[in-house]
Amino acid sequence: MTEDWLEGSEKVIREKMSENKAEKTPATRGSTLKLYPLANPKGTYIFCDVCGLPAWLRCKGCKIAAYCNREHRQLDWVGIHRFLCKSLIYLYNPPARSIRKLQQQALERSILNTKLELINMCLLHGHRHLFEGNYKLIIPPALQCLRLYKMLFKAEGVEWLPAYLLLAECLLGLGQTNEAANYLSLINWFETKNKVTGTKCNHMVKRTMAKLSMVRENYQQALDELAEDIYLASEKYGTLDIQTSGGYFNMANVYFFLEREEVTNSLYKKVIDIWCNHLQSLVNQKMKTSTPDIALPIKEEEYEALS
Fold it and tell me: Boundaries of each MYND-type domain copy (predicted)?
């Protein structure tokens, strides 16, 4: 499934970039090294981290990430690579293993923790791009997340679902509704096969499916899916949690399209009340700290709730 996405993402990226030529992306700070495929050892092939085509460039910083052109290099740099370039050096080229068993175990734990931290970082920045509406920039962190999952778990499983869900949201934002539906079907299949319940993905899948139904103007189905989203989120987080507020917000959007003004305003007010309480709790938390001038970081679940 991952390979199918790699093959198709090249076309999606190029189409969207050609549509928005006036849109400028922050300049790439990292530099690149030129690759010569014929100089690779026999049977060794290097592919672009973004689209999966043969690579001609490599990141000069980590000497790991590879690209088929500078456009994809810049997309990856802005999307995620600038945040994990140095970490990839340690991950792919760890220090020489010690002969002592205890030191070897400590090194393995350190590498495992690094992988988990990078996965969380990829998901955080992916949801940040989703919240900001930068759908093209979601592609690099989502694919990097899948590569890290593959290093950890080898075969596809329920652990991969957050990255697949991020890709579904990305494709939906890029207008690729059929491809987004395919990823959502894959996620549902994984959940059914492995009897996954009580996870963050359960209610987020319902919410993404509702967004897909809204795009297809099937509003009644969207309301049914959002009702399931709110139920599952309430069961896990509570009815007044910011995670649940996303379901109320999207339901308000549906009623807005149905011209149900009274219900729409009621749901929007509920979302505002939930976020006011959440922000007030953050202010109280900040005032209790010894350094109240330091800003609290935005968490992944806050980006998710806002999307």
Answer: 48-85
Buried b (16+ CB within 10 A) or exposed e, 88-111: beebeeeeeeeeeeeeeeeeeeeb
Residue 259 lies in a domain: yes
Mean pLDDT of the chain: 82
Q: Domain range for residue 119? A: 106-175
Helix (H), strand (E) at residue 301: helix 300-306
> Strand locations in the chain, DSSP E?
32-34, 57-59, 66-67
Residue 285's pLDDT band (cuts 50, 70, 90): confident
Q: Phi/psi class of residue 36: alpha, beta or left (left: φ > 0; alpha: ψ in -120 to 50)? A: beta
The string of pLDDT tens digits covering residues 127-185 is: 999 989 999 999 999 999 999 998 888 677 778 888 999 999 999 999 999 999 999 99
Residue 202 and residue 168 in one domain: no
Q: Is the model's pTM score more than 0.85?
A: no
> What is the tally of structural domains in the chain?
3
In a shared domain, residues 84 and 135:
no
Q: Give the range among 38-52, 198-212, 260-274 with minimum mean pLDDT.
A: 38-52
The residues, any chain, with a CB within 8 Å of residue 95's CB and separated by 6 or more, are: 107
Does 4 reside within a domain?
Answer: no
Distances (CA, A) of 109 to 36, 94, 115, 243: 36, 12, 10, 32
Q: First CA to last CA across the chain, in angstroms?
A: 25
DSSP letter assigned to residue 42: T
Q: Are 211 and 271 members of one domain? A: yes
